[in-house]
Amino acid sequence: WGLLDGMGIYHLMIIPALGALLFAPIIIHFARDARGHGVSEVLEAVSVHGGRIPPRVGVVKSVASGLCIGSGGSVGLEGPIAQIGSAIGSYVGQIFTLNEDRIRLLLACGAGAGISATFHAPITGTIFALELILGHVEAGYFSAVVISAVVADTIAQLHKASCFVAPPYTLVSVWELYFYAILGVFAAFGALTFTKVLFKMEELWSKVPVSDYIRPALGGLVLGVIA
């Protein structure tokens, strides 16, 4: 992006749009299943398709997410990595022609491992895979997902230092816990509001009468203006 430095602050408006012009055709031509947030598509695969995700989805999602995030798109990490990890786990199960139950388990292991390695949070990755992806907890599933999450986090820790180090925290007074509880309530309402606004904006944006090739670029341009 050094070629755009001469434009000053205006290059911030252009870069997200350029990134969208690059990843939109890739998704449209190679794997439309790679569209969306990622988690909902994984849930659909588990519920409707027996845990089977086409291998191309993981590849396209990796490339498209890299281009989008790298160009400043605010897509987050959890959705893409959940779908990419799930696609890898599902593909392994399909290679060995396992039954649907085992494919779903490997899919969940991939999703949990992806979340665990990305955020260095094996407990979160495990709960995410069991509660959200599979929707239930069984002894056989639990051990497999835990092992996947811990191994993924261990490997990630070996090859990547933390982006930041959280300062040590000491509880000064037990009264702090009450304020944290109140903060949790406000955070819950904030999360609900954000989710509703997000889906409403997606619904409105999908009605814009432009090509699927151009719509992401317009969104990138709006993002650039806000930035």
TrEMBL record:
Entry coiled-coil feature ranges: none
GO molecular function: chloride channel activity
Pfam families (alphabetical): Voltage_CLC
Domain of life: Bacteria
Any single Gene Ontology cellular-component annotation: chloride channel complex
Listed transmembrane segments: 12-31, 105-130, 177-199
Membrane topology designation: Multi-pass membrane protein
Keyword Isomerase: no
Subcellular location: Membrane
Keyword Transport in annotation: yes
Keywords noted in UniProt: Chloride, Chloride channel, Ion channel, Ion transport, Membrane, Transmembrane, Transmembrane helix, Transport
Protein name: Cl-channel voltage-gated family protein
Lineage per the UniProt record: Bacteria, Pseudomonadati, Pseudomonadota, Gammaproteobacteria, Thiotrichales
